[in-house]
Amino acid sequence: MPLVSPLSADHDSETKKLANFFNETLGFCPNSVLTMQHRPAISKAFINLNMAVMANEGRVSSALKRMIAWVSSNATGCRYCQAHAIRAAERYGAEQEQLDNIWEYRTHPSFNEAERAALDFSLAASQIPNAVDDTIKKRLYKYWNEGEIVEMLGVISLFGYLNRWNDSMGTSIEEGAVESGEQFLGKHGWEKGKHI
């Protein structure tokens, strides 16, 4: 049972309108956003930040952003966000081979070196203590420009917030996210955990 129960999608009309963004991303409005509605300023600010972070300004694709989110969520252990990130990666056109082998991104041939650099950055930035160092920086600059690095860190930071929010809340996971989690992550032991 979640720490705080989500409110109805109709609770705040402004949040409801902004939350249409998630219908494209996930196919539903996340329970995390419905819980944030207890303070509508938070739900609205979060959705606007999410839209800004996930906008594509450079070569960082929507699918790669969601894989960056998955690596970050996997590093912190948030099963709710792992399932949401892999579902969104699927919906935004990540290759089937990448979805099936996300756990092996460092060695699997479906990932190129630019993607590996981005995903290693996500892992390093999501750890405590933070592990971003000169080696990570050099690899990033080999493939990505400063604006693209800002986009990546925006995703990592957004999911840092979400990982803390959803794991602390024990947010109930939606059926669509469960399906994606079981399909792409289940073979490596993913389960709902406390997010029932």
What descriptive keywords fit this protein?
0% strand, 196 residues, 63% helix, mainly alpha, 11 helices, CMD-like, Carboxymuconolactone decarboxylase family protein, AhpD-like
Report on this structure.
It is a single chain. By secondary structure, the chain is mostly helical. Helix content is 63%, strand content 0%. Helix 5 (62-76) runs parallel beside helix 8 (113-126), helix 5 crosses helix 10 and helix 8 packs across helix 10 (146-169). The longest helix has 24 residues, at 146-169.
SSE layout and pairing:
Elements: H1 13-18, H2 20-25, H3 31-36, H4 40-54, H5 62-76, H6 79-91, H7 96-100, H8 113-126, H9 134-143, H10 146-169, H11 175-184
Could you provide a short overview of the structure?
It holds the Pfam family CMD. The chain is mainly α and 196 residues long. 63% of the residues lie in helices and 0% in strands.
Let me know the number of strands.
0
Radius of gyration: 16 Å
Question: Mind summarizing the main beta sheet?
Answer: none
What order do the SSEs take from the amino end to the carboxyl end, as H and E? HHHHHHHHHHH
Uncertain segments of ≥5 residues (pLDDT<50)? none
Basic shape: globular
* Helix-strand category: mainly alpha
Percent of residues in β-strands: under 5%
Percent of residues in helical segments? 55-70%
InterPro entries: AhpD-like, CMD-like
Pfam family, one: CMD
Protein name: Carboxymuconolactone decarboxylase family protein
Domain Carboxymuconolactone decarboxylase-like: 40-120
